Amino acid sequence: MAIIVTLPNEYGYVLLATVSTFFINIFHSINTGKQRKASGVKYPAAYASQEVAEKDPKAKAFNCAQRAHANFTENLTPAIGAMLIAGLKYPVLAGALGGLWSLSRVFYAIGYTKGGPQARTKFGIISSVGLLTLKLTAAYTAVQMAFY
């Protein structure tokens, strides 16, 4: 049995939120590169050593920027997938949650880079709640489409 999918008129919001992640990734790359240059950590090292980071605030900032970027990419695939799936039935909600997730990731990175791990918490919570809600909405959408 074939399933024909008609996208809701508001699906453009979902696409905008999804596309925003491309630019958030560019932001992360620029931020990490800037911190790498300032810290003097040379390629191919992914991070400054713990000993160096404890003594050098620039090395610590680089490690934090690098970790924020890694955390973004770890969550990117589930976020995009959840946005695209949830948006099939709930495009405005999925677009809004996806936009919130993207925006919170910028502030998460800024906080983490400037203030260390403890400064990422507020926007980490916002990001996590937004992504969890997207995942649950995507799961509900999948169940609706599979069984109804």
From TrEMBL:
Give the source's domain of life in one word: Eukaryota
Could you tell me which Gene3D superfamilies the record lists for this protein? Membrane associated eicosanoid/glutathione metabolism-like domain
Tell whether Membrane is among the UniProt keywords.
yes
Parts of the chain that traverse the membrane: 12-30, 90-111, 123-143
Q: Kindly state which keywords UniProt assigns to this record, in alphabetical order.
A: Membrane, Transmembrane, Transmembrane helix
Q: Name one GO cellular component term.
A: endoplasmic reticulum
Q: Where is it located?
A: Membrane
Instruction: Indicate the principal place this protein occupies in or around the cell.
Output: membrane
In what way does this protein cross or attach to the membrane? Multi-pass membrane protein
One Pfam family name is MAPEG
InterPro entries of this UniProt entry?
MAPEG (IPR050997), MAPEG-like_dom_sf (IPR023352), Membr-assoc_MAPEG (IPR001129)
Gene Ontology molecular function:
glutathione peroxidase activity; glutathione transferase activity
**In its UniProt entry, what is this protein called?**
Membrane-associated proteins in eicosanoid and glutathione metabolism
Q: What is the scientific name of the source organism?
A: Neurospora tetrasperma (strain FGSC 2508 / ATCC MYA-4615 / P0657)
